[in-house]
Each structure stands twice: as C-alpha cells, then as structure tokens.
Large ribosomal subunit protein bL25 (Marinibactrum halimedae), 207 residues
Amino acid sequence: MSEDFTLNAELRSDAGKGASRRLRREENKVPAIIYGGEKAPQNITVLQKDIIKQLENEAFYSHIITLNVGDDSEQVILKDLQRHPAKALILHADFLRVDASKLLTTKVPLHFLNEETCPGVKLQGGKVSHSVTELEVSCLPSNLPEFIEVDLAEVEVGQTIHISDLKLPSGVSSVELAHDHDLGVVSITKPKGSSSDEESSEGEAAE
C-alpha cells in the first residue's frame, strides 16, 4: 500500500431520510456510518467535496483509511457507497472498522495487462471479454493490495483465465476459491465471421 488516506468526519445525532436530505442539501455533507469491531455503530457525516476528491483515486476503494472523528481516529475501509443516479453526488457511505490482527474481507479491483498485444487479439483477431473487474479477497489489513494484476500476455482465442490462474500477493486469498468457485475472470472470444464460423455455417447449409 503506497498511499495514506485520511478523511475527516463529524458525529451526527439526527437520523432518517429527512435529516439525510437536509445534510446533503443545506450543508453539502454526506451521511455515513462506521460499524464493525467491538464498538457500537456510529452515525457520522463527511464533506461531499472531501469524499469525492478521495474517490478520484482508485486505491481509496481498497485501502485502509484513517477516519478522524472529533478527537478520535478509526482505521476503516470503504465498504459500500450510494451514488445519486443522475448527479455527481454521494448519497451515503458505509465504513467498516478493521483490526490489524484480524482478517478482513473486501473487494479489490483487477488491472488487466497486455490486452491489445496478446496472441488472441493481435494475431487471431479475438475480442477481450471481462467476466469480473474486481475480486473479493480475505487478508490482514497490512496485506491488503490496491489492485491485482491479470496478465493476458499468452492468452489465445478460446482461452479463459480463471481465479485460480491469478497470482495473488502473499497473505491474500480469494473468497470464491475458498468456496470452490473457480470463476472465469477474462477470456478471448472468437471474432465473428471467422473461418471456423463460416465452415460451420456452410456445413449446416449443406445438411
């Protein structure tokens, strides 16, 4: 983890949809909650402009965040985010407390490498098809990666990279694999109008 993220927050005592709308409209604040661990959940607010600025960095979604609440600070991860369907506004945020000594479960973005230069695309005219763009992992907070690389350098048409093919960092495991779900991550599909398609069509016509 190469960056440190800090976000300032304030405790809020009022709850409910009306109070949340007022916060967003009149004070330009985002209602949020901190939960998890041995402490009780806390209702907080963060400034709209502050969280939007942080969200510009992809690593914010999968990074330990220091959340300053008054004189206290919490180590958290962003667990859920509600966005306005039409405007560039955050409606609500959920932050999960993390313990340095306990495993956490969260989703990490996938970075796809060599998509345009792999044999399946460059030489065989195939198309890259993504099945997932993030992976749910389990690890200690200190081992949480900002992203996981998926290298397509040697992938050909008709081949699929599965979760079990990914090189996960030390101390990081896949939640899906732990449940014996070796899902496909990305594949190179056959281009339409390829010779094999044409042969198949000719064979069906002949029959």
About this structure: The chain has two domains: 5-98, 105-195.
